[in-house]
Specification:
The complex is a heterodimer of chains A (248) and B (426).
Chain A lengths: L1 E7 L3 E8 L2 E9 L4 H9 L6 E5 L3 H7 L4 E2 L2 H12 L5 E5 L4 E6 L5 E6 L8 H10 L4 H10 L11 H13 L4 H20 L8 E4 L6 H11 L3 E2 L7 H11 L1
Helix pairs in contact in A: 3-9, 4-6, 5-7, 7-8
Chain B lengths: L5 H6 L4 H20 L8 H9 L4 H11 L4 E4 L6 H6 L3 E4 L8 H7 L6 H11 L4 H5 L2 E6 L2 H10 L6 E5 L6 H22 L5 H24 L9 H10 L5 H20 L11 E6 L8 H8 L3 E6 L4 H4 L10 H13 L10 H14 L3 E7 L3 H16 L4 E6 L6 H16 L1
Parallel strand pairs in B: 1-2, 1-3, 3-4, 5-6, 5-7, 7-8
The chains are: A alpha/beta (248), B alpha/beta (426).
Bound molecules: iron/sulfur cluster (2 copies).
């Protein structure tokens, strides 16, 4: 049996296919302005016995794939993370527009979760905006941060204020590397505050697109004082959870 | 609406165009929120009718009552003792402020970080779209939260007449004495504007009318404990909302009629949802008409709300007033005792509230609690932390939602609520 898990995020759509519970294929595309067509393109080559969706576009997706099951991102990412790291007790997930922390009980059931408030502060989008303000690519931005020996903290986490602050700091000749590290530090400390809303226990898994960011992984591990596991493909963990949910 | 109420609205000084715009939003919102629910009890037709006439027939009744010499008292809070108003032949109406309206106008008077309820109240008054404000002879303010007590200083100039009541912050003997003195001052104030005198008979009549209304709500609450739930949370909330507008006796009769119907449903094991549907208790800030946002999201995810620990709910209707006193003073003492039991977050400490939440969750067989805080409401948002900790400790899963009247966070709230319901389903 071939089951599909699709995670329709604000920035990217992630697909994982599993045959009899084993992942066999994954794909990531930009959400763009027409998420439904993007989903169609992702799925058109496969004949799936079951489709489960999650992410902010999940209800829209279900309107067009009425047989699809819908689960929340929290359940999806929990299912994915416990498969990849058995016994996982805490998940920190930072995606394009939201961040969340999830505590699992020893059996892998969701015990408690918290999510960021409505604005994009502390999410992938914030990182991207700051990279743009500093005039770097995403990769260059991370490398700059890793190079810096000290960070220059921003006084605001509001993306609008932070952007103008960065622009004026550049004008005053502040070192880019330090600002890049400062932005990462802000996100890490914000995430630590959020994660403080759930009981934190090891093993901790860091998922979502931002978990590919080496600098953030290091800082979050420091801020939470826990070793952090990052799956090989952190962005598709929720989609994996969906694909496996389809089997269950 | 068949009758043309425009002349009446005009006479009340409403801005007819703005008022049309408001009704143009409310009508469809009501249809979409309430009329699409499956298996509603027949008795809800009465409440649908009341809501369809909320700016019509009910206002006409108020206008006529005023012509007959009765006074209409508008209030924003459950601390305003309805027994006293009724005893002096007055009519108490709740001023809802459950929607964003003329927020820009309101923000000319208030900082942006004021809770949506207060901003809503200002918006409605400033835009002249609330016939209840216009039909009130006097509006009663209360020194409860900082937001309200400071706002009344400004609100005073926007309404014809405002009476502000001081409310204690501590349930001590001194606090009780303050409330007692303030209720006595309220009696004197109403006696003066109504030209009537308070006496034992009239006060007992007032107490009886309000107690009957509360008792009917208690009966409803007991029936909502059944699984499958015999009535939706939205309809339950609606009844709690109409509680503040309707004629007390007629309201009591209508609630009891629904209760009769629900008893039959329960006997047949019938409900609005399947047995075993996750059951939610909502707790927190008041939800005034037409603030149905969070309950619609919760019930839209397939859960059912079985109770409201809120001022528009059991915090407001909780205890009866002892009617055994033999003098006006004794009866006023009993009224004060009853109102001092309200476990509003403006009190410090307010430990009885979490006990009440736990008791409600137990008797209503709730699987989880959704704590609803209005953004910028310090009393409830601050209290939410310890409340959540305690409930979780007692094994009651709790989800905290802080929001306002805007629609832009509906998607996010829905995600949280869905995940919470998944957690309850295990
Ligand atoms: S929450 Fe407190 S201040 Fe607000 S209506 Fe209720 S009793 Fe009044
Ligand atoms: S919701 Fe909170 S801040 Fe707003 S009026 Fe009520 S108690 Fe005050």
């Amino acid at each position: 049996m071939l089951s599909a898990g699709i995670d329709i995020g604000s920035r990217a759509i992630k697909l994982v296919l599993a045959r009899d519970g084993c992942p066999v294929h994954e794909a990531v595309v930009d959400t763009g302005t027409d998420p439904l067509s993007a989903c169609r393109r992702l799925l058109c080559d496969f004949t799936c016995d079951q489709v489960t969706c999650t992410g902010y576009g999940r209800h829209l997706f279900q309107e067009h794939w009425p047989d699809a099951k819908v689960i929340s991102e929290i359940k999806a990412v929990a299912a994915g993370a416990t498969t990849l790291v058995p016994g996982c007790r805490t998940i920190v997930d930072i995606g394009g527009q939201d961040s969340k922390a999830i505590a699992l009980d020893p059996a892998g059931k969701v015990q408690k979760f918290v999510m960021n408030d409505r604005c994009a502060a502390g999410t992938g989008q914030f990182l991207e905006m700051m990279a743009t303000a500093l005039g770097c690519s995403r990769e260059a931005f991370v490398h700059a941060a890793l190079r810096a020996s000290q960070g220059r903290k921003l006084s605001s986490m509001c993306s609008v204020f932070a952007q103008s602050e960065v622009v004026s700091l550049i004008a005053r000749g502040a070192p880019r590397d330090e600002m890049a590290l400062g932005v990462h530090q802000s996100i890490a400390s914000r995430t630590a505050v959020l994660a403080g809303g759930v009981p934190l226990e090891a093993p901790l898994v860091f998922t979502g697109g931002c978990a590919r960011n080496e600098c953030l992984v290091r800082l979050i591990s420091e801020a939470l004082r826990l070793p952090v596991h990052v799956p090989v493909s952190p962005q598709t963990v929720a989609a994996l959870g969906c694909a496996l949910h389809s089997v269950a | 609406m068949s009758t043309d109420y425009r002349p009446m609205w005009k006479e009340l000084g409403l801005d007819l165009d703005a008022h049309d715009a408001l009704l143009g939003v409310l009508g469809p919102l009501y249809q979409q929120t309430f009329m699409t629910q499956p298996n509603r009890p027949d008795g809800m037709k009465y409440f649908d009718f009341v809501m369809s006439e909320v700016h019509g027939l009910r206002i006409q009744e108020l206008v006529e009552a005023r012509k007959a010499g009765r006074k209409v008292v508008g209030a924003f809070c459950t601390f305003v003792p309805e027994e006293i108003v009724l005893a002096l032949d007055g009519i108490l109406v709740g001023l809802c402020a459950g929607a964003e309206f003329a927020t820009g106008e309101a923000e000319k008077h208030l900082p942006r970080n004021t809770c949506a309820l207060i901003k809503g109240a200002f918006g409605f008054a400033l835009a002249r779209v609330c016939p209840y404000v216009s039909a009130s002879d006097v509006i009663v303010g209360e020194n409860t939260c900082d937001g309200k007590k400071k706002s009344y200083e400004i609100f005073r100039d926007l309404v014809p007449r405002l009476h502000v009541m001081d409310i204690p912050q501590v349930k001590s003997p001194e606090g009780r004495a303050l409330m007692r003195a303030e209720f006595a001052r309220f009696v004197a104030f109403l006696e003066q504007i109504t030209g009537r005198d308070m006496n034992v008979e009239s006060l007992k009549r007032g107490i009886a009318a309000v107690n009957a209304k509360r008792a009917a709500m208690h009966r409803l609450a007991r029936l909502r404990a059944a699984d499958p739930a015999p009535i939706s949370g939205l309809d339950g909330l609606l009844m709690n909302q109409v509680y503040f507008y309707d004629d007390p006796a007629r309201f009591t009769g209508s609630v009891n009629a629904i209760c009769d119907e629900l008893e039959q449903r329960i006997a047949r094991q019938e409900g609005v949802v399947r047995k075993g549907t996750p059951r939610i208790l909502v707790s927190g800030c008041p939800m005034a008409v037409p603030n149905w946002k969070l309950p619609s999201i919760i019930e839209g995810t397939g859960a059912v709300i079985v109770g409201e620990e809120s001022c528009v709910g059991e915090r407001g209707t909780q205890a009866l007033t002892d009617d055994t006193g033999r003098t006006v003073d004794e009866l006023l003492d009993a009224i004060v005792d009853r109102y001092l039991k309200i476990d509003c977050a403006i009190f410090t400490p307010n430990d009885s509230r979490v006990e009440h939440i736990l008791a409600m969750a137990g008797s209503l067989k709730a699987d989880g609690v959704v704590h609803y805080g209005l953004q910028f409401c310090s009393p409830y948002q601050i209290e939410a932390g310890p409340v959540e900790k305690r409930l979780e400790k007692e094994g009651l899963p709790t989800l905290r939602i802080d929001t306002d009247y805007g629609q832009e966070d509906v998607g996010q709230i829905r995600t949280r609520v869905e995940a919470f319901i998944e957690r309850l389903r295990g």
